[in-house]
Structure formats: C-alpha cells, structure tokens
UniProtKB/TrEMBL annotation, chain A:
<keyword id="KW-0812">Transmembrane</keyword>
<feature type="transmembrane region" description="Helical">
    <location>
        <begin position="123"/>
        <end position="149"/>
    </location>
</feature>
<protein>
    <submittedName>
        <fullName>DUF4190 domain-containing protein</fullName>
    </submittedName>
</protein>
<feature type="domain" description="DUF4190">
    <location>
        <begin position="73"/>
        <end position="135"/>
    </location>
</feature>
<dbReference type="InterPro" id="IPR025241">
    <property type="entry name" value="DUF4190"/>
</dbReference>
<feature type="transmembrane region" description="Helical">
    <location>
        <begin position="73"/>
        <end position="102"/>
    </location>
</feature>
<dbReference type="Pfam" id="PF13828">
    <property type="entry name" value="DUF4190"/>
</dbReference>
<keyword id="KW-1133">Transmembrane helix</keyword>
<feature type="region of interest" description="Disordered">
    <location>
        <begin position="1"/>
        <end position="43"/>
    </location>
</feature>
UniProtKB/TrEMBL annotation, chain B:
<protein>
    <submittedName>
        <fullName>DUF2752 domain-containing protein</fullName>
    </submittedName>
</protein>
<feature type="transmembrane region" description="Helical">
    <location>
        <begin position="81"/>
        <end position="98"/>
    </location>
</feature>
<feature type="transmembrane region" description="Helical">
    <location>
        <begin position="110"/>
        <end position="128"/>
    </location>
</feature>
<keyword id="KW-1133">Transmembrane helix</keyword>
<dbReference type="Pfam" id="PF10825">
    <property type="entry name" value="DUF2752"/>
</dbReference>
<keyword id="KW-0472">Membrane</keyword>
<feature type="transmembrane region" description="Helical">
    <location>
        <begin position="15"/>
        <end position="34"/>
    </location>
</feature>
<dbReference type="InterPro" id="IPR021215">
    <property type="entry name" value="DUF2752"/>
</dbReference>
<keyword id="KW-0812">Transmembrane</keyword>
Length: 159, 142
C-alpha cells in the first residue's frame, strides 16, 4: 500500500516525526484515507520490535545506550599506541596498547564493538614501539657502552 | 553454582591481572627507590635526550619516582610535574581496579574523552617543556 501524503503534502515516511503527525490526524484532512488512523496503533509496536539493541543495552555511565558498548577499548588502544611515540620510551604505553588492542579485537568478534580497524592500528603501533624500544636497548648495550651510564649527567644546561 | 562460588571463581580469575601488575610495579618502584637515578652508572640513558637534547614528556619521571618514593614532593615536582600528578592517580585507579576485581564486579576502562584529552595534555606538555622560557618550570631540574 502506498504511503498517503502528509498534511503538508510531503510523502509520509515512517520515523520519529510521525509522532508529530498525531495531533493533525484528529481531524483527518480530505486527502488522508481512513487507514491513516491505523498508523498510530501500528507504529509503537514496530518501534519496540524494530530497535531491540536499544532495549537490550546494558546500563552504562549514564550515556545514551549504543549498540556497540565496547568501542572504547579500540580507542584506548590507539591512544596508547600514539602515546608510545610521544614518549621516547615506547615500552610503557606500548605494552598496554597491544594488550588492550587484542581485547578490542575480541570485543569486535563478540559483536560488542565495530572499530576493529582502530584496534588493529593500536596493536601495530604498540608492537612497533615495543620493537623500537627493545632495539634501542640492545643497541645501547652493545654498541655504545660509553653512553650507557650517563643518566643524570647528560641533561643539557638550562639557560 | 551458588552465588558465593561464582564470586570466588571470578575472584581468582580477575584478580590475577591487577595483582600481577601491582607486584611488578611495586618491585620496580622499590628498585628505583633504592638505586638513585641521579647518580650515573645504574640506568640506561635516554637515546632521544642523548642524541637531540629534547625532553620527552617522560623525562625526569624516573628521578621523580625516586623522589616520590622518598616523599620529596618538591624534588619530584622539579623533575616531572605531570608525573607527580599522574603517578598517584594511576595508583588510585589500580586500587579501584583491584577492589572491584576482588569483589567480582566488572570494571570498565575510563571513558573515551579521557583518552583523547590525556593524549593532548601529554603532547602539549612535551612541547611546552622544551620551550626555553618554560623549561625551568616544566623540564627536569639540572
């Protein structure tokens, strides 16, 4: 059955704005067929059935419930991965980036998140940072023994 | 399975992560407290500082940890003010995590805005402490 045109002539579309159509239908306009009255009864039922994720979302921090509650894991993985390059010692945030990134991937597979790409980015950044840190330690120990024991005495003089 | 048994099983599994992390961090902090980073010869030097003279946002954090472990707040602040704010906060967060895991309740990461704001603070701090006018306030003391 085709949609009847709304009171202002625009084509009817099912949607939240339909609730605003309710008062005008108290007196149906000339071009509203009587089955327009069936929409108010039919709509709430389909509303409840059409958006189950909202009804089933677990209580959170008071945010509006979303279908992907564990998207935060991948964001933290990416942020920790980036931070491991902001800091010159990438090991301390690189390891958490990798751990949280793998947990984010698990959440994507469980259907609780949809940002697997971001999780992969965090994992890659984390592993590379760990690798660079380990390589730096190895190079320092092997090739520059004179530079090894200079913490505390290499700080440039501040003006 | 009774609720009590469920809590006990959750306790064993979930407490392992914060407990192990806490043990590692406590051991590392004890080592730093005992072995002074200010005297040369005990720790690796930072390659970035050595090669470029730039101070990353973590510069001075080891010395700050040593000072914090000896309750020298002023000395720690002169080494790395951001770390002086961040380290106790992380300890409190770990305590919260441990308490929640012990009672078997779930714990979630901090909200996403905290992540991006934190990264911004880190970058801004790293840039500002290398500005000569501010390096006395934000950079590690000589």
């Amino acid at each position: 059955m085709t949609q009847p045109p709304g009171p202002d002539g625009s084509p009817e579309r099912p949607g939240p704005h339909r609730a605003e159509d309710q008062p005008p239908q108290g007196q149906p306009p000339q071009d509203q067929p009587p089955h327009g009255q069936a929409y108010p009864q039919g709509y709430p039922a389909s509303d409840a059935a059409g958006v189950p994720p909202y009804a089933a979302a677990p209580p959170g921090y008071g945010y509006a419930p979303t279908p992907y509650p564990r998207n935060d894991l991948a964001v933290w993985s990416l942020v920790l991965g980036i931070a491991s390059y902001v800091l010159s010692c990438g090991l301390f945030t690189g390891i958490p980036a990798v751990i949280v990134g793998y947990k984010a991937r698990g959440a994507v597979q469980a259907g609780e998140a949809n940002n697997g790409g971001m999780a992969t980015a965090g994992i890659i950044l984390g592993w590379v940072a760990i690798g660079l840190s380990v390589a730096a330690v190895v190079l320092l120990v092997l090739f520059v023994p004179a530079f090894l024991y200079t913490v505390g005495s290499t700080i440039p003089d501040q003006p | 399975m009774t609720a009590e048994a469920r809590t006990r099983e959750r306790t064993r599994r979930d407490v392992a992560a914060p407990a192990v992390l806490g043990a590692i961090v406590a051991g590392a902090t004890a080592y730093v407290a005992l072995v002074d980073p200010n005297s040369p010869g005990h720790y690796l030097t930072c390659p970035l500082l050595l090669l470029t003279g730039l101070e990353c946002p973590g510069c001075g954090a080891l010395r700050a940890t040593h000072d914090l472990a000896h309750l020298d707040l002023a000395g720690a602040w002169s080494m790395n003010p951001l770390w002086v704010v961040l380290a106790p906060t992380l300890v409190l967060m770990w305590g919260w995590w441990m308490a929640r895991a012990w009672t078997g309740r779930p714990v979630r990461p901090l909200p996403v805005p905290v992540a991006w704001v934190g990264l911004g603070v880190l970058v801004v701090f790293g840039v500002l402490r290398n500005v000569p006018a501010l390096s006395g306030w934000l950079g590690p003391a000589a």
